[in-house]
Amino acid sequence: MTKFIIRWIINAIAVYAAVMIVPGIEPQSGNWISFIWLGLIFGIVNAFLGPILKLLTCPLILLTLGFFTLIVNTFLFYLAGYLGSSFGVGFDVAGFWPAFLGSIIVSVVSIFLSLIFKDELKR
């Protein structure tokens, strides 16, 4: 349970960083509760749809030496914002490039925070 909560907080911080840094991504609500809910939505989307999409696009991922994974992550980032907007906690993305940069920022921040909380996530 602790691992789930830490992962949830990491996702919320990563999505917050992407929304605040990338121009072209506008949050529907600026309070911190909405980013916590958005972190949960992002985690659920990644947990369920991420492996399915990566399995379905495996030939493209292999053909591009893994770079198509960035496109899959961009779609998942955009989808998390779209699903969150139906609950009033999402964000609007102005196009492909803001979603692409947002997904890269979410990945980098998630990796960095996962390295910091590595011991807590192992338990």
Strand content: under 5%
Return the string of H and E elements: HEHHHEHH
Secondary structure: number of strands = 2
Radius of gyration: 14 Å
Question: What general outline do the C-alpha atoms trace?
Answer: globular
Head-to-tail CA distance between termini: 10 Å
Q: Give the strand line-up of the largest sheet.
A: 1-2
Q: How many domains comprise the coordinates?
A: 1
Are there runs of 5+ residues with pLDDT below 50, and where? none
Task: Give the overall pLDDT as a whole number.
Answer: 91
Structure classification = mainly alpha
Give a description of the structure.
- It is a single chain.
- By secondary structure, this protein is mainly α.
- The protein has one domain (2-116).
- 78% of the residues lie in helices and 5% in strands.
- The chain is built from 6 helices and 2 strands; from the N terminus they run H-E-H-H-H-E-H-H.
- The protein has a two-stranded antiparallel sheet with strand order 1-2.
- The longest helix is centred in the middle third of the chain and has 25 residues, at 32-56.
- The termini are close together.
- The mean pLDDT is 91.
In a nutshell, what does this entry contain?
This protein is mainly alpha-helical and 123 residues long. Strands 1-2 form a two-stranded antiparallel sheet. Helices cover 78% and strands 5% of the residues.
